[in-house]
């Protein structure tokens, strides 16, 4: 059982597998089960013998894995953790198709996915699908998906599809017995007085889009019509809570074949009765570029009797922004440090683009954090503004069935496919059906009409056989979600051979000294040509740079370029990671890594250039670096001065040392790297503040500052600040006192009064036209109007106005005084 993958240059990890505690009455203590040292390079899988894991308690729902890894040579340490949840089923099932309403006379097409415990699709698995006694075997595709079509005569209120793993005899799992792999999926049954229906075939996958381009979409619509051969169809498309398309057209309702796979039918479909016609037509939609990330499509018509027949569905659209934006490097292949590269930003004409290029390590650390910008993050904000369908829903089954508006069940209506009816009474209580109102509600539309929209009959439920589950998917033994964690963000090894194509550079003469975390951060104007290009010098870091452009167009709006990377590489280089800071005279070990990505072993001399700002125990080391490997040379330095101490390390290929087995034909390779080491003073920092008042008479004044005893030589620093306002240093952050009044009568005044004194103070120093004054005045007006709501009928004030038994003398006096002071600022 594979639990975790690791990525490194060369790590020695210590692995611990444990049963995590759960907040249950009989929880098991956290118990370490396995400790395994292992040495590896690159990415590795860890195999765990599950016989060592004792889960003989029903309260154990998962395993916790921790890994502490140490990089060989440098000693750098890192740790990681993952949680593996235990599944109680070999497979689980999920209903992934969009449409989940069973319509009269129409088959219900269901796409079901069989999933492993890690939620990945289970391919080539034989499953059995049943509705009551009608069963059929299916085999999942490469994604674990199969399609089953339920004919209309098998659809009943509270009916369900049962899916099981065929011939699942062995219930023995890695960690004990498993529950049977079974899933239950319940139908929402549509009711129509005329047994008519419309059903949209919604694509399972998101519709492709092009940034800044329109979206073409063709939706098949299935129908059953009762004694009507033509209808005026009305179409509405809603996206981001706005109606973006309204249309109407006359549609001939003639019999035609339905676009379905007959092999997926549980049973052959029965013929319709006289007067009914079944068929399909397509709706062609041309949607604007802003119809993303989803659109609700509603199609409806009304019969001669005034009944509304409606169908709706939600179509997922790819995440596309209105403004085109892209970023390109030239050359696109790997570059060497200090190379010049051409950068081209392409966007909609007359756009303004902000370009950011950061080190891959910075990009990884910023993933998912607040403020990180991506197309997914932008659309997540849009999704947050979408109204919840259940919030403010027009569908109120209890109120509908308790009122006088619900129609009685029409016993004369013959439901298509002989849909079974439950016992209906004149005492309405609930309903097992949906109707046209559900289609409007799902499309996020409020509907007011004199047509017949609500037709669902009401019933008294039979509690003897009442099914507590109202709809959706319910699993007999629900598997825990999750499974084996993926190594998200892991950098895969590149087998493209790009490294072999890098030409061997001649000996570097210029040292590498520029190692920024952010390389480029600037704003560029895009003219009528729709692009701009410029050259930039690559920094000295051997890394991968990630660039993104954020563009804004005055007519179209926002555009984001996909992240574009530039790999900076050289087959022979040094690397040094310095501590954040060290103290003067501290003995500091520095480990210099020498990387050799050539195809032969290299004897290398590593040296540290002497400098008056530090001393070192040794200034040179010789190491033998195997092909495609790394070795470490350690230097111990003692800083002699505070500040940034420059360290210059150099490495070069020398003649083969004894035992290096490097061969005779050695390449000429070298690298020079300069990195600063931040050195701070020893001891403890202490600040002493002296305040002096000066009179503005034009004369010079001199004063002396006494230094304390025991001061570290050279560490003294003096900072002088002057202010013409005595209160200036004390109220630097005056804007923090400006607050929006809120709350009850007392809380409102607590936030109201500071605004008065802020405005008074700024007026007195001649800054009455500042933005803070405008904001404080606006808040005072709001607070004044809010406080008036707590004024009682006798003129006094209290915390909750007339809701209190009497007014508050203290609050009334405080309000009177505060209003008097604020009267000069608000009218």
TrEMBL record:
One of its GO terms (molecular function) is serine-type endopeptidase inhibitor activity. InterPro entries: A2M/Complement_sys (IPR050473), A2M_N_BRD (IPR011625), Alpha-macroglob_thiol-ester_cl (IPR047565), Alpha-macroglobulin_TED (IPR011626), Ig-like_fold (IPR013783), Ig_E-set (IPR014756), Macroglobln_a2 (IPR001599), MacrogloblnA2_CS (IPR019742). Residues 1-18 form the signal peptide. GO terms for cellular component: extracellular space. SMART domains: A2M (SM01360), A2M_N_2 (SM01359), Thiol-ester_cl (SM01419). Residues 200-365 form the Alpha-2-macroglobulin bait region domain. Residues 518-608 form the Alpha-2-macroglobulin domain. Keywords: Disulfide bond, Protease inhibitor, Serine protease inhibitor, Signal. Belongs to the protease inhibitor I39 (alpha-2-macroglobulin) family. This is Alpha2 macroglobulin isoform 2. The lineage of its organism: Eukaryota, Metazoa, Ecdysozoa, Arthropoda, Crustacea.
């Amino acid at each position: 059982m594979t639990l975790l993958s690791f990525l490194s240059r060369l790590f020695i990890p210590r692995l611990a597998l444990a049963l995590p505690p759960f907040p249950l009455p009989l929880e098991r203590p956290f118990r370490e089960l396995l400790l395994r040292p292992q040495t590896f390079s690159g990415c590795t899988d860890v195999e765990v013998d599950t016989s060592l894991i004792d889960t003989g308690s029903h309260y154990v729902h998962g395993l916790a894995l921790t890994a502490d890894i140490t990089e060989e040579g440098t000693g750098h340490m890192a740790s990681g953790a993952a949680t593996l949840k235990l599944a109680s089923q070999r497979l689980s099932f999920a209903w992934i198709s969009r449409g989940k309403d069973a319509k009269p006379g129409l088959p219900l097409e269901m796409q079901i996915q069989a999933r492993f415990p890690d939620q990945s699709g289970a391919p080539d698995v034989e499953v059995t699908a049943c509705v009551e006694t009608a069963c059929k075997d299916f085999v999942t595709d490469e994604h674990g998906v199969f399609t089953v079509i339920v004919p209309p005569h098998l659809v009943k209120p509270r009916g369900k599809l049962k899916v099981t793993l065929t011939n699942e005899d062995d219930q023995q799992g890695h960690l004990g017995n498993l529950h049977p792999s079974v899933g239950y999926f319940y139908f929402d049954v549509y009711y129509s007085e005329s047994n008519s229906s419309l059903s949209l075939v919604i694509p399972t996958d998101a519709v492709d889009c092009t940034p800044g381009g329109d979206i073409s979409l063709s939706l098949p619509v299935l129908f059953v019509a009762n004694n009507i051969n033509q209808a005026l169809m009305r179409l509405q498309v809603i996206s981001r809570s706005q109606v973006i398309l309204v249309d109407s057209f006359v549609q001939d309702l003639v019999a035609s074949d339905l676009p379905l796979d007959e092999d997926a039918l549980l049973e052959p479909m029965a013929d319709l009765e006289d007067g009914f016609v079944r068929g399909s037509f397509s709706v062609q939609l041309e949607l604007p570029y802003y119809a993303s990330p989803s659109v609700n499509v509603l199609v409806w018509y009304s019969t001669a009797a005034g009944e509304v027949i409606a169908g709706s569905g939600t179509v997922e659209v790819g995440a596309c922004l209105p403004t085109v934006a892209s970023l390109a490097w030239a050359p696109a292949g790997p570059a060497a440090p200090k190379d010049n590269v051409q950068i081209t930003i392409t966007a909609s004409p007359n756009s303004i683009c902000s370009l950011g290029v950061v080190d891959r390590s910075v990009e990884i650390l910023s993933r998912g954090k607040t403020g990180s910008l991506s197309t997914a993050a932008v659309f997540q904000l849009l999704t947050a503004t979408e109204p919840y369908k259940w919030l403010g829903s027009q569908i109120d089954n209890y109120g509908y069935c308790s009122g006088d508006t619900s129609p009685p069940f029409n016993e004369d209506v013959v439901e298509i496919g002989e849909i079974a009816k439950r016992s209906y009474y004149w005492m309405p209580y609930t309903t097992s059906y949906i109707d046209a109102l559900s289609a409007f509600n799902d499309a996020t539309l409020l509907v007011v009409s004199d047509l017949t929209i609500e037709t669902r009959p009401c019933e008294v439920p039979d509690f003897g056989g009442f099914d507590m589950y109202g709809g959706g998917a319910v699993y007999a033994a629900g598997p825990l979600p999750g499974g084996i964690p993926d190594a998200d963000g892991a950098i895969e090894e590149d087998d493209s051979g790009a490294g072999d194509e890098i030409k061997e550079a001649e000996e570097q003469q210029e040292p590498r000294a520029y190692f920024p975390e952010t390389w480029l951060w600037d704003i560029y104007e895009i003219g009528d040509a729709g692009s701009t290009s410029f050259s930039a010098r690559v920094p000295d870091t051997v890394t991968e740079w990630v660039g993104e452009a954020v563009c804004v167009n005055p007519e179209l709006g926002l555009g984001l370029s996909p992240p574009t990377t530039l790999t900076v590489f050289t087959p022979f280089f040094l690397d040094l990671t310095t501590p954040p800071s060290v103290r003067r005279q501290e003995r500091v070990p520095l480990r210099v890594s020498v990387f050799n990505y050539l195809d032969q072993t290299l004897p290398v001399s590593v040296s540290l250039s002497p400098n008056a700002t530090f001393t070192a125990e040794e200034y040179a080391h010789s190491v033998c670096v195997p092909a495609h490997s790394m070795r470490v040379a350690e230097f111990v330095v003692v800083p002699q001065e505070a500040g940034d101490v420059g360290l210059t390390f150099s490495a070069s290929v020398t003649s083969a040392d004894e035992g290096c087995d490097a061969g005779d034909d050695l390449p000429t390779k070298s690298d020079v790297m300069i990195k600063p080491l931040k050195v701070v003073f020893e001891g403890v920092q202490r600040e002493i503040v002296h305040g002096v008042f000066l009179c503005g008479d034009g004369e010079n004044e001199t004063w002396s500052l006494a230094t304390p005893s025991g001061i570290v030589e050279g560490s003294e620093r003096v900072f002088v600040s002057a202010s013409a306002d005595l209160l200036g240093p004390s109220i630097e952050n005056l804007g923090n006192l400006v607050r929006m009044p809120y709350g009850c009568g007392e809380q409102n005044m607590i936030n109201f009064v500071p605004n008065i004194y802020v405005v008074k103070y700024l007026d007195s120093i001649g800054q009455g036209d500042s933005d803070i004054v405008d904001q404080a005045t606006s808040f005072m007006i709001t607070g004044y109007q809010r406080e008036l709501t707590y004024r009682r009928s006798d003129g006094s004030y209290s915390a909750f106005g007339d809701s209190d038994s009497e007014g508050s003398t203290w609050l009334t006096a405080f309000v009177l005084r505060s209003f008097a002071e604020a009267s000069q600022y608000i009218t």
